[in-house]
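[recover] target loaded
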């Protein structure tokens, strides 16, 4: 891939405590293939206020916002767009002449996968996590008609708040039992983390479930997803969510929507399963 930078090249970036290469490879692939004068770079940060000030000062076109800044960034934007305002969580910033707007493309990605997998809204859900991404995922299930759910979160304040938002129950730990739909929205299983080799739920619960969702995108196959596949369960992976939400970010940044074949090529390149533009 050859990037030809000019004085007019627009910069997009990602802000995360632990960034991966997926977004960088995905967006830059599409810029190159579609002939767009953009470049994308990931940044590991610990100062969200300073990072947003830099976006404004340098006229950065757009930024992906990841853990743990999806809620903290809200205080530093000019406008909360409906996708972010409805759930109080942000994963995308766009800078234009009217200022810095905040969006959430995670919500739409999860909603799309709920629909395409034809998950039955009468089915109970157990969702582990209560941060910004958990808000997007839980609200997508809620708005798809899922009325029977449990938020599992050690943080009683955020856990109970998210449970109330969805009209679900809360508990501090999984505590065993059967749940037809299991959803992990925690860092458990994330490559490079302290719990990279751990399961998000007990093995017996995974084996008994009907559907297992893990939003962790790196690695593509987390321990939880591998266990669910081995048990013959239906899975929805963080990699699937990552591609869908990244496409919507790309559209927000550039105004261009790639076709399905080009998106598939970009996703393969980003995951490292394809190594060239061909």
């Amino acid at each position: 891939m050859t990037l030809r930078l000019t004085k007019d090249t627009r910069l997009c970036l990602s802000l995360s405590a632990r960034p991966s290469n997926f977004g960088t490879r995905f967006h830059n692939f599409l810029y190159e293939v579609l002939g767009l004068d953009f470049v994308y770079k990931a940044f590991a940060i610990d100062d969200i206020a300073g990072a947003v000030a830099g976006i404004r000062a340098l006229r950065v076109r757009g930024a992906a916002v990841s853990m743990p800044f999806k809620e903290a960034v809200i205080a530093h934007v000019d406008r909360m767009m409906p996708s972010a305002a409805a759930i109080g969580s942000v994963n995308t910033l766009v800078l234009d002449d009217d200022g810095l707007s905040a969006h959430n493309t995670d919500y739409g990605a999860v909603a799309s996968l709920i629909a395409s997998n034809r998950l039955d809204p009468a089915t109970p859900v157990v969702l582990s996590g209560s941060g910004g991404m958990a808000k997007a995922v839980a609200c997508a299930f809620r708005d798809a008609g899922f009325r029977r759910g449990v938020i599992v979160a050690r943080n009683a304040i955020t856990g109970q708040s998210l449970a109330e938002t969805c009209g679900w129950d809360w508990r501090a730990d999984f505590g065993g039992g059967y749940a037809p739909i299991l959803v992990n929205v925690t860092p458990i299983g994330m490559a490079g983390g302290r719990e990279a080799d751990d399961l998000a739920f007990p093995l017996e619960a995974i084996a008994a479930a009907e559907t297992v969702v893990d939003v962790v995108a790196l690695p593509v196959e987390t321990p939880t997803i591998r266990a669910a596949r081995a048990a013959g369960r239906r899975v929805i992976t963080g990699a699937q969510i990552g591609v869908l939400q990244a496409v919507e970010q790309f559209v927000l940044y550039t105004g261009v929507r790639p076709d399905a074949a080009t998106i598939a090529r970009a996703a393969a390149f980003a995951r490292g399963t394809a190594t060239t533009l061909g």
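[recover] notes: Residues 107-239 form a domain with the Rossmann fold fold (CATH 3.40.50.720).
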